[in-house]
Amino acid sequence: MHAKPVLVTGATGYVGGRLVQRLLDAGYRVRAAGRSIGKIRARPWSVHPNLEPVYAEMQDVDSVTRAAIGCSAAYYLVHSMTHTGKDFENLDRRAALNMVQAADAAGLERMIYLGGLGDESRHLSKHLSSRAEVAKILSKGPVPVTVLRAAMILGSGSASFEILRYLTERLPVMITPGGVHTKCQPISIRNVLNYLVGCLENQETTGRTYDIGGPDIVTYVELINIYAERAGLRRRVIIAVPCFPLRLAAYLVTLITPVPPSLAMPLVQGMFNEVICRDNQILSVIPQDLMTCRASISRALEKVEQHIVDTSYSDAGLTLPPEWALRGDASYSWGQILESTYRLRLKTGVERVWAPIQRIGGENGWYYWDSLLRIRGFMDQVIGGVGVSRGRRHPVEIAVGDALDSWRVLAAEPSQRLLLLSEMKHPGRVFLELRVIPLGRNETELSVTFRLLPRGLAGVVYWYAITPVHYFMFRGMLRNMAEAAGLNPAHVPSPGV
Where are the domains of the chain? Predict the structure, then answer.
């Protein structure tokens, strides 16, 4: 047992969520930091006796300092390319400066940072430039920093892998920017985690910078065809157009894949930067078998098919809801709340009624007018929204912070309620709540509530325009959920305000 805990910032992100489990398995005490304690506690590893959840907002230096006090070391796994896409470079800069100040005040012995590859002597994309700037800021502080520079991470749920998967599976013919012929050196998420844990266990890595990559150096064209081969698809026809507009390319990526524009644009821009390891010095300190691109893709596909994707790029960027949304009480809100509720009584216990709720979304659908929801999702993607193609992490398991098609899970109380926040573009904030309420002996009420905090006149007009649609949608949804549970409704679904 290690005496002092290790701080993991970005603990509910793609890499951080997996690293926490690896550290716990290795016997470390872990302090998992994030903006939502509820989201941290929803993770499978949250019940581990050596896990301590802690609040930390990287733009608030005091909260980061409190999180770091008492720790021996910290992992810095934070980036600001969230769904908002607003000025991520400046946000990353401020967060790194706050981490330097907090690490010094807390007396940390060392930090470990996962950044990006890229030759700084050439013109880097905004994303890679920001990663490099963060490394410089952290390294100039008084606490020694180990910097790992990685290119594309191959693993189920990573943003890069999801773009690769959706584009290859959906487009037998692709017209792309010329950057698809740029060379890169992808690395498996398994190898990344081995390096991250290995750096903590090897003092020799303190204050050093290492390039990390897999054994293969490939172009993106080759990577696409490797994926097609592993997935049993025909070889893809790729037509590279040198003058293809990057903004258009990123826009098409958001239409075809579930990755939002705020992630798609930086990743598309990065295609023109060659990201190859300058050396393999780290292998002499942390030896391991590096997975090839073929092996990494095969393993990721197996995880997706078996529905055991531990973490996903969509886990990051949880929007904190207003207090009234979590309490289910509009009186806690500021301004007008527009709300409608539909109810259905069922002759059974709460467990049976909860079963269709925990399966909602993803491949199972929303029990009514799924085709209309897909059209609405496509319209949202056209205007730069997330759409509905993200699916869900697991076909049955559901936890706070999960992405659920176009929604984000804010509360998941088994056999009681599911509260969702829409991440589509709306003229206001939209919440959907499904509740299961025991009414007495062998009788349960199933309800669905739609809430809108409208933004201006457009929000009010939007509410009255969709109300007739909701009348039919939610009535049909409740009836079909009852049928999915093998039940007949005792009373017809009725709306209420």
Answer: 6-315, 323-496
Give alpha helix (H) positions in 123-232. 126-139, 159-170, 189-201, 220-230
* HSE (side-chain half, CA atoms, 13 Å) at 146: 24
Question: SS3 for 468?
Answer: helix
Give the percent of the chain with pLDDT over 70: 92
Q: How confident is the model at residue 337 (pLDDT cuts 50, 70, 90)?
A: confident
> Distance between CA 468 and CA 73 in Å, rounded?
56
Reported in sequence order, the residue ranges of 318-416 that DSSP labels E, i.e. its strands, are 338-346, 403-404, 407-413
Amino acid occupying residue 163: I
pLDDT, residue 334, reads: 42
Q: How does strand 407-413 pair with strand 417-422?
A: antiparallel
* Dist. CA 401–CA 412, nearest whole Å: 9
CATH class of the structural domain 323-496: alpha beta
Q: Which residues contact 375 (CB under 8 A, 6 or more apart)?
A: none
DSSP state of 172: S
DSSP alpha helices (H): ranges in 241-341? Answer: 246-256, 261-270, 282-285, 293-305, 323-327
CA distance readout (Å), 151 to 2, 75, 236: 31, 18, 23
Phi, psi of 178 (to 5 degrees): -65, -15
CA-angle at 275, arms to 274 and 281, nearest 5°: 140
Question: What is the residue-wise DSSP string for 348-370?
Answer: S-HHHHHHHHHT-SGGG--SS-H
pLDDT at 330 (0 to 100): 44
Return mean pLDDT, the chain. 89
The reported pLDDT for the residue numbered 271 is 87
In the sheet with 417-422, reading across from the earlier edge strand, the strands are: 403-404, 407-413, 417-422, 428-440, 443-454, 338-346, 494-496
SS3 of residue 459 by DSSP: helix
Per-residue pLDDT, 329:
47
Burial classification of residue 282, based on how many CB atoms lie within 10 Å of its CB (0-12 exposed, 13-18 middle, 19 or more buried): buried
How far from 78 is each of 34, 91, 99, 211, 457, CA to CA, in Å? 10, 10, 10, 19, 37
Report strand pairing: 428-440 vs 443-454: antiparallel
Q: What is the pTM of this model?
A: 0.83
Alpha carbon distance 34, 12 (integer Å): 7
The answer to whether residues 380 and 424 touch, using CB atoms and an 8 Å cutoff, is: yes
Amino acid identity of 64?
Answer: V
Distances (CA, A) of 431 to 68, 336, 399: 34, 14, 16
**Given a cut of 90, is residue 66 above it in pLDDT?**
yes
- 321 pLDDT above the threshold of 60: no
Q: What is the DSSP letter of 452?
A: E
Which class is domain 6-315? alpha beta
Summarize pLDDT for 248-295 with one digit per residue, the tens.
Answer: 998 888 888 888 887 888 888 888 889 999 999 999 999 999 999 999
